[in-house]
Amino acid sequence: MYVDPNYRGQNLGGNTRSVQDLQREDSEYQSSLKDADSIRKKRDILIDKQGKINPEDLVKLGKLLPDNIDNIKLVIDMNQIAKNHNLTLKNVKLDTTIKTNPNKLGVDISKHGTVGLSFSVSSSYGNFQNFLTDLEKSLRLVEITDLSVTGNDTGIYDFSIGIKTYWLK
What we know:
Elements: H1 19-51, H2 55-64, H3 71-83, E1 90-95, E2 112-123, H4 125-137, E3 142-150, E4 157-168
Antiparallel strand pairs: 1-2, 2-4, 3-4
């Protein structure tokens, strides 16, 4: 009896996979396992780092750039800032159709989304400045996009404000 173990990689008996092909495939699998181990180690390091972050700071980060947009919470936050200055938001309108780059066509692949909010308030100029200062100091990332002022003889002005805020997708 004669046995030929086919170490040369020749196809015998209808077997279409040679030893060399199997060795290449095994090498690819070993490389994939090493990559998976590397990713798993990096994940564990990141989880460890995240565990060391102060929970209060995580809450602040969540307010600065939330991972979803809560339109009602946005209006409540803006109303609370206004209320601190004895202001009442009027003509509140949400715009969730804002594009980050209006010249860009196709699917939006950005990592953040935007939502617009417009409203008006009536106030003295000094009180409105204080309102804007508090808006600036709030934890929520807000960009003022529109501002118009209508004056009168009483010293109380009508301010129309448009803002844009961000959230992670």
